Amino acid sequence: MDDSNALRRLQTLLLHLQKANLYDSLVVEPTSGDVTLGGVTAAVGSSDPEKVPFQVAPFGSGLETFRQLKEVLHHLRWMLQKDQLAQDMFLIGAPGPFRRWLAFRFCELIGRPAEYVALSRDTVESDLKQRREVRDSTVHYIDQAAVRAALNGWLLVLEGVEKCERNVLPVLNNLLEAREMTLDDGRSLVSAQRYDQLLKTHSAEQLQALRLVRVHPAFRVIALGLPVPKFPGNPLDPPLRSRFQARHVPPLPMAARLSLLREAAPTVPLNSLRQLLSFAESIRALEMGDTRELLSKLPHFPHDSLLTAARLLEMFPDVPLGAVIRRIFPYDLVADASDRGLIESMLDSQTLLLPAAASAHTYELVGVGAAKPVAVADGADGVPESLRRYVVEVTLCSASGSSVSCAVPSGPLVEPWSLLAGPSQEAAVSHVGGRRVVELPLHRQLLAALTQDVAIGADVCIVGCKGSGKSVMVELLAERLGYRAHGLEIVYIYKDMSSRDLLQRRVTHDNGDTSWAASPLVRACLTGGLAVLDGIHRLHRGTLGLIQRLVHDRELTLFDGTRLVRLERYLHMRRKLGLSEQRLQQERIFAVHPSFRLVTLASPPTPKNAWLTAEIASMFHFHHMPDLPPPAKACLLRALFPAMPPSVL
User: How far apart are the first and last CA of the chain?
Assistant: First the structure.
């Protein structure tokens, strides 16, 4: 009897395991065009392919490796089920791009076009429904993302719902519940079921005269948000929260993330990757354990930034692991003495802590070659001349004496430069923009670190006190890499700056017509320049999240409907979809130039201005520019005033 019960339990367990294996199988039928995942089958759409996300995966990782991760397939299967039940979804999880990648991967899987809206405290009702524009002295109502998605049966992705003001999202409440909405131009959106019932008693012309518009039955909404109050923000109102089916999206487990890192950086020793992941898991365990109150002042560890950390180690193997961790996890900028001591003890236990006298930067920039043009891609016929890019070969020398040469994006005009004496403890004088600039060894090391990030495609944030030389360091970087003459776009941040000012500015012409003018940040995206956001500590903490998709994916949606996409997706539209350049311009689709880079400058966080949130920590590589010690100041003065008597110095 006992044996039969045990056998029955084993058979039941085996049945569940076999069902679980179904979740790991993704089958695409080439004949019918259907996709099957874990027993759930969905039809693949074919309309508006230029609006369907393309090759969604973490930047620099293997495409197929990410697609076949068991955790990713589990999330996608759940989303397929909710789509078949005509339910809207809410993906909640830690800051970072992983939830957005899942949403766009779902759209790519079923061939569903997507509309994306990044929400902030500046988002108003017109950003979601309709915006008024004046053209030829006539008011026109332009449908916005939510209305376009509802009418065409697309998927609407709303990111950052916790940042939005509480009186804005209820505008979508009726659209989510009953698929109905009243528009400013007099039209009314009606659900597909109700519209079809009205067609039985009314003609299509009568419904059109009543200005009733049918909502497409395939319309869905995916909201992306953070758990509040663990992270700052506004929680969803209960009536609105009930419109969604929620799913928690935790960070990928260590084994899955290790497979991504190994494919992104195959030459990095496996032990180094495991050390990085082990430290990340240790921080995660502390956040989930009883000590989370102690770590309340620390930013959440940016697990998705481990990919750029691995690429940094692959290209520059002499960078210490402790320096890499400090670059993606700036605990020393926000933690008090006790918190910092806890983190450093963890680093020390894993032999990752840098010695007190050691510098976080082990390379110095010693040489820059001439700029060379590079083809956009093999066989890139018909690609606009504006996407032509240039690279320079830079030489970095490490403290151990080894040198690394690599190609770095640049402007078309680069003046070759070399440090004649090689790495040394002496100052070097150069000229930037007609000014004399003294480069100390620590400046050359920081410049080398910034060049490393430019080489691997990571955007950076330089943190330092006022007058420490952050702006001069950026100008020096732009001078070395040829961005200064080609496209150095500086945006000076002020306290009341809104998200619109960051991307586009509303313009009223002499005849009363309205239009949108691109900001310096957008101009740098299109021309391949170096964009500098000077003073991001003055921004509201939710405003900078508006550009996180630009930082992570090199894609951006502007207020006038213009879409900036990464170069690979733009070339896919040109070659595979057969769309001409004129057609893409009509659709207002442009490519982000591959040479575009973003540098942000900020003052150190303070208790009154804790601007370095978990979301911002996941966007950049951080570099701390400390005040000069007395010996460095003396070296600087000797370089500026060589005739000064030592006694005066």
Answer: 95
For 8-62, how does the pLDDT look when each residue is reduced to its tens digit (9 = 90+)?
676 666 655 545 554 556 665 544 578 888 888 888 887 888 899 988 888 666 6
What pTM did the predictor assign? 0.89
H helix intervals, 125-224: 125-128, 145-152, 173-178, 192-201, 204-209
Q: How far is 148 from 143, CA to CA, in rounded Å?
A: 6
Separation CA 77–CA 120 (nearest Å): 30
C-beta of residue 239 within 8 angstroms of C-beta of residue 172: no
- 98, two tokens: 């992983």
Separation between Cα atoms, residue 550 and residue 19, nearest integer Å: 39
For 106-135, the DSSP string reads HHHHHT--EEEEE--TT--HHHHSEEEEEE
Q: Is 15 exposed, middle or buried (0-12, 13-18, 19+ CB in 10 A)?
A: exposed
Q: Which residue has the tokens 């360091």?
A: 473
Cα–Cα distances (Å) from 305 to 56, 453, 492, 599, in that order, read: 17, 12, 27, 17
- Work out the pLDDT band at 649, boundaries 50, 70, 90: low
Secondary structure letter of residue 155 according to DSSP:
E
Burial class (CB in 10 A: 0-12, 13-18, 19+), 271: exposed
Q: Which pair of tokens denotes residue 205?
A: 């012309």
DSSP code of 381?
T
489 touches 524 (CB < 8 A): yes
- Report pLDDT digits (tens) over 408-452: 888 877 778 776 544 555 777 777 777 777 778 888 889 999 999
CA atoms within 13 A on the CB side of 573: 26
Going by C-alpha positions, the residue among 160, 157, 94 that lies closest to residue 305 is 94
Please give the Cα distance from 124 to 418 (Å, whole number): 52
Stated as kind and residue range, the H or E segment containing 530 is: strand 530-534
